[in-house]
Amino acid sequence: xxxxxxxxxxxxxxxxxxxxxxxxxxxxxxxxxxxxxxxxxxxxxxxxxxxxxxxxxxxxxxxxxxxxxxxxxxxxxxxxxxxxxxxxxxxxxxxxxxxxxxxxxxxxxxxxxxxxxxxxxxxxxxxxxxxxxxxxxxxxxxxxxxxxxxxxxxxxxxxxxxxxxxxxxxxxxxxxxxxxxxxxxxxxxxxxxxxxxxxxxxxxxxxxxxxxxxxxxxxxxxxxxxxxxxxxxxxxxxxxxxxxxxxxxxxxxxxxxxxxxxxxxxxxxxxxxxxxxxxxxxxxxxxxxxxxxxxxxxxxxxxxxxxxxxxxxxxxxxxxxx
Length: 322
Description:
- It contains ten helices and 15 strands.
- It has helices at 11-22, 72-81, 121-138, 161-169, 188-201, 216-227, 239-244, 273-277, 285-299, 311-320, and strands at 2-6, 26-31, 43-46, 60-66, 83-92, 143-147, 150-151, 172-176, 182-183, 186-187, 205-209, 214-215, 233-237, 248-249, 255-256.
- It has a seven-stranded parallel beta sheet, with helices on both faces.
């Protein structure tokens, strides 16, 4: 198959391209190339989507995978320009309007591009909704992948990597005391394999692309079991203490990754069964943790992070428990 990946230089896009190359497909990655290099074996076509897809005009592909983020105009331009037998669009679980109630299916209202608008989670989700609609209008059998938290080698968000790195250092590790909170993730390599499977099989439909939901305590326990030295202790910090120390949920420079506010407790409680039934295969969290640790060490374990807390802040949390 001849497969075009609109992206292909970082994380999920690169993993998709690498998996397709591994299977012997003819892979073209269209990207500026400023964020990274395409995988070995893939061809790189230099494209700035703000300026169109000029070098690709007139070309045909058996499958296209579009990873467009905040630009419906990019999506529509690709749909007009490219001839493809199968179309995959990488969307997000951020399209849902209600993250507090489990099982909600109502999506946000679609929004068009507005470069002057502030980038917010809701705006991101609404632009994804508009992009999904455009893809469905153009391709009846389109494969819409609403990704949840993607983990594994190449992830620079620190939402999962923070815990892998911290637990690998051992000692007394502060964790949020929300042990029953649901937590979901999908290894980038498993998601990439499913996307390539679906291109090969011409799978269509809209799916929440995520693994099964497990309690946060179980997820962190699996990570600890994979990477933590003997004697590591997970110390639960009550939410009231976290708030009094100005620790924020989810992400940011002073945050506890995987901890969700009440308003978003269903964000990681999506129904994974349809995706699993459609062929998504997920590896154990312990395997993702071990491989993520190798990636963390390569990046530098003491680097400035996008999510997590410093050891000094952690010590203050532990001290607050007496």
